[in-house]
Amino acid sequence: MAILPFQFDSGKMSLIGAATAQTIVKGDMLKDNGSGYAVPVVAGDGVDVRWIAMESVTTTADGQQILAMSTDGVTFIADCDAAWSITDIGTNCDIAAAGQLDPDAASDNIFAIERGVGTAEVGTKVIGQFTRGTPNS
To answer: In 13-124, where do the E strands start and end?
Structure first.
């Protein structure tokens, strides 16, 4: 289960500081914890997804550097917690877990679904971009 870059990712990777005692898996969506450190998102977070983790790590100190990719202008391929539907294309969806989207939920509008991968009602991956700015919450 992961969110991984699909295109327009050139030059978007960098080292960012993470909060202590975080278990981060490659492909996890990351947010700013309010103190400037990256932490994984959780289901129901109506927050701006700022980065995608590009390595798996368990942090041991505030500010520990981890490799991550900015979500600005990058198209991603994302795992979903359920099969996507043809009616999901062109809509925004929510976070299901740190490495998954919920294509059927649209209260927070975190990710704009451009297209599905595979067959509708069977495939569990979508392609699109993260919405930036103030999500609906």
So the answer is: 13-18, 23-24, 29-32, 38-40, 51-53, 57-58, 64-70, 75-79, 92-97, 100-102, 111-117
Torsion, CA 132, CA 21, CA 43, CA 75, rounded to 10: 40
Give the start-to-end residue ranges of the domains of the chain. Answer: 8-70, 75-130
* This prediction's pTM: 0.92
Grouping H, G, I as helix, E, B as strand and the rest as coil, residue 52 is strand
- Tens of pLDDT, residue by residue over 64-114, are 999 999 999 999 999 999 999 999 999 999 999 999 999 999 888 999 999
